[in-house]
Design brief:
The chain is an alpha/beta fold. It folds into 2 domains: 38 residues; 246 residues, Alpha/Beta hydrolase fold, catalytic domain (Rossmann fold). It has 11 helices and 9 strands. Helix 4 packs across helix 5 and helix 5 crosses helix 8. The longest helix is centred in the N-terminal third of the chain and has 37 residues. The protein is globular, with a radius of gyration of 22 Å.
């Protein structure tokens, strides 16, 4: 009798597992089909408009521009154009797991992959340019901190609403996501990240996250927060008082934790979290350009000659 009961329980358990797998697969398909309809992709699987940005400049110096979590290079396009117009080579890579399918996000959005991608992009620019600046927004700011911490060859960096550490509410969300059977979860609050309605409609993020991606965000944010005491290059730190992701108190605290002797914090009052695309994007571009101009790297011989020097 006991053996029969155990057999029934085992069969029921197996059926439940199969049922859960089928349910998850059905949910995954619905999310992925809806995302494909909303964000059409190129033949290479990249969301149209979310491709990496590379603009060749003329002043012998480059800027590596890093977008945020669950975002794409599109959010940094205006800033890239402004820096390029000033003479810089600009490269805004599409970070792993971003700007593609939800399946790509689920498989590739990992902390190690992001850091490796940034390091490789920086090294590639450095091989061709006398100096490479860093500009990162949100999680891209955290990645910029990690790349620049302890580095001797970065002339200066600009942090736009950097996501450093993880607020308690986000910690709870990451924990709940890990416990949820859902393969994909809707990201909340994104509509408040950009106040300009036109820019908000143009955003190409999926508005969807996975538990693994949230864990990766947490890892990068905590590691970057711990690295602030090793960050000694000149730092520009720009944040809005209306930021819906990073509190004013956290922004002030993290700025104080930066070890660099040369650092500047600027507060804005008309934007959300995605500063480079919001209502004050021109102010942001002016600040970033001015900061890099104030901290020039080595000027290559050809550029010096073009400017009339020796």
């Amino acid at each position: 009798m006991a053996a029969v009961l155990l057999g029934v329980l085992a069969a029921a358990s197996a059926a439940a597992v199969v049922g859960m797998r089928r349910w998850r697969a059905a949910v995954r398909r619905r999310f992925e089909q809806a995302d494909t309809a909303r964000r059409p992709r190129t033949a290479k699987g990249v969301v149209i408009g979310a491709e990496a940005i590379t603009l060749a400049g003329a002043n012998g110096q480059a800027v590596l521009v890093l977008h945020g979590f669950n975002d794409t290079p599109q959010s940094m396009a205006y800033l890239c154009g402004r820096l390029h117009a000033a003479g810089y080579t600009v490269h805004a890579p599409r970070l792993p797991g971003h700007g593609g399918s939800l399946r790509e996000m689920a498989c590739e959005a990992r902390a190690g992959a992001w850091r490796a991608h940034v390091a490789e992009a920086y090294a590639a620019l450095r091989r061709e340019h006398q100096a490479v600046y860093l500009c990162g927004q949100s999680m891209g700011g955290a990645l910029a901190v990690l790349q620049a911490a302890g580095a001797a060859d970065v002339p200066a960096i600009a942090l736009l609403a950097p996501f450093l550490g993880m607020p308690a509410a986000m910690q709870r969300r990451a924990l709940l996501a890990a416990l949820s059977p859902m393969p994909y979860l809707r990201s909340t609050g994104g509509e408040r990240s950009i106040h300009d309605p036109v820019a908000r409609r143009a955003a190409l993020g999926p508005g969807i996250v996975t538990a693994a991606a949230l864990r990766a965000l947490r890892r990068v944010a905590l590691d970057a927060e711990a690295a602030l005491g090793r960050l000694r290059v000149p730092v520009l730190y720009v944040q809005s008082r209306l930021d819906n992701r990073v509190s004013e108190a956290d922004g002030a605290r993290h700025f104080e934790d930066i070890a660099a002797q040369t650092k500047k914090q600027v507060w804005l009052d008309g934007s959300g979290h995605i500063l480079s695309a919001d209502r004050e994007k021109d102010v942001v571009a002016d600040l970033v350009y001015a900061w890099f101009a104030q901290h020039p790297g080595p000027v290559p011989t050809a550029a010096r000659r073009a400017a009339g020097g020796r």
